[in-house]
Design goal:
About 50% of the residues lie in helices and about 10% in strands. α7 links the parallel β2 and β3. By secondary structure, it is α+β, with helices and mostly antiparallel strands. The chain is globular, with a radius of gyration of 20 Å. It has a 4-stranded mixed β-sheet. It has 8 helices and 4 strands. It has 2 domains: about 80 residues, no CATH class; about 130 residues, no CATH class.
């Protein structure tokens, strides 16, 4: 499973985000999808440009150094991990589901506000389990002042689930303490109603825990 592609674009996207470029402007500049840019720069603090006449103030030395360090460490991480085998991808997905997936009930249910993790879960679930696409459903948790149509389009692209299979969203009351640019697309809940597939996942997680506890030496 290769994931080395677009390393230069990722680094440049981080640099531009640190310079207060919008997601749309970065996507246009690099010729990539806006959803990809959103994932690449999610860890970069974004300060909107102040619309004033005259010269625009660029990032300071510390901001540029931070953006460069993040981009370099991201590149190093990709190089160090390299390509994942199917078995390694299976283990990674089990760890992800063990952390954020539902363990009770009769549905496979994974929720997160991070589009990268939602995308990984969907790819992993489709790769290793018997998935009837028509039974995949998405519910969004979104504050009332945020753009629902944009959020649905965003998460439909990320999950590969058609808009018609999105449930009625939960609209939370506006939180005045929330940064307006944080989680602008809300939290995505992906659900697949199948007790059998849930039991398969939980069985694999239990196996991974048991094997790891007996075969991994400390240090």
């Amino acid at each position: 499973m290769g994931y080395r592609g677009k390393v230069e674009e990722r680094q440049r996207a981080c640099e531009l985000r640190a310079e207060s470029w919008t997601l749309a402007d970065i996507a246009a500049e690099l010729g990539v999808a806006k959803s990809s840019v959103s994932i690449w720069v999610r860890h970069i603090d974004f300060t909107p440009r102040t619309r004033k006449a005259g010269r625009r103030r660029g990032p300071n030395k510390l901001q540029r150094a931070k953006a460069a360090e993040i981009a370099n460490l991201q590149r190093h991480g990709i190089e160090q991990i390299g390509n994942l085998s199917d078995r390694e991808f299976l283990m990674a997905g089990l760890g992800l589901y063990a952390g954020d997936g539902a363990k009770t009930g009769s549905s496979v249910h994974f929720a997160n506000s991070n589009p990268a993790l939602i995308e990984i879960f969907c790819k992993w679930f489709r790769r290793f389990f018997d998935v009837d696409e028509s039974r995949l459903h998405v519910t969004l948790y979104l504050h009332e002042h945020l753009d629902l149509d944009a959020a649905v389009e965003h998460w439909s692209t990320i999950t590969g689930v058609p808009v018609e299979q999105f449930n009625k969203p939960y609209r939370a009351a506006v939180d005045e303490t929330m940064r307006y640019n944080k989680h602008v697309h809300g939290c995505c809940h992906v659900r697949y109603h199948s007790a059998r597939e849930l039991r398969r996942i939980l069985g694999l997680i239990d196996g991974l825990i048991l094997i790891s506890s007996t075969s991994v030496s400390p240090g």
